[in-house]
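Dear Dr. H.,

I hope your travels went smoothly. While you were away I took the liberty of generating a structure for the chain from your last submission, since the lab meeting agenda had it listed for discussion. I wanted you to have the full record in hand beforehand rather than looking at slides cold. The sequence, exactly as received, is reproduced here:
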Amino acid sequence: MVCTAGLCIDPDQRLLVIRRTRQPRANAWSLPGGRLHFGERAEVGVLRELVEETGLFGRRATMIGTHQHIDPDHHLIVLIHRVEGLSGSLHPGDDAAEAAWVPVSSLTPHNSTLDLFRAALEANSR
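The corresponding predicted structure, in token form, is as follows:
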């Protein structure tokens, strides 16, 4: 399955995260994102998912990398985008139980999709 993830970093170097309500990794903090609709361009899909899950609108999405998540029940190809030009009011929606700005240091393998965060931050530093 092809998915998107949006990397948003605020001026204080905090990441925009959502707490997932669905599998895989329900209850984990992750980047806003989700499944692409058939025929939907990835840069459009990541901005759609951003507003659905966080209430924030992004002005620009640039693909910066990819990530694979494979477990016994899922095989996801995640297209990672850096999202800039945010506006709106932060509030969780759709399949996000919470939405927040957090420091990277607060994310662990036990409470987040840390492998996705690492892949996104590495791609963003190139």
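Two observations you may find useful: The longest helix spans residues 42-54. The mean pLDDT is 95.

With kind regards,
E. W.
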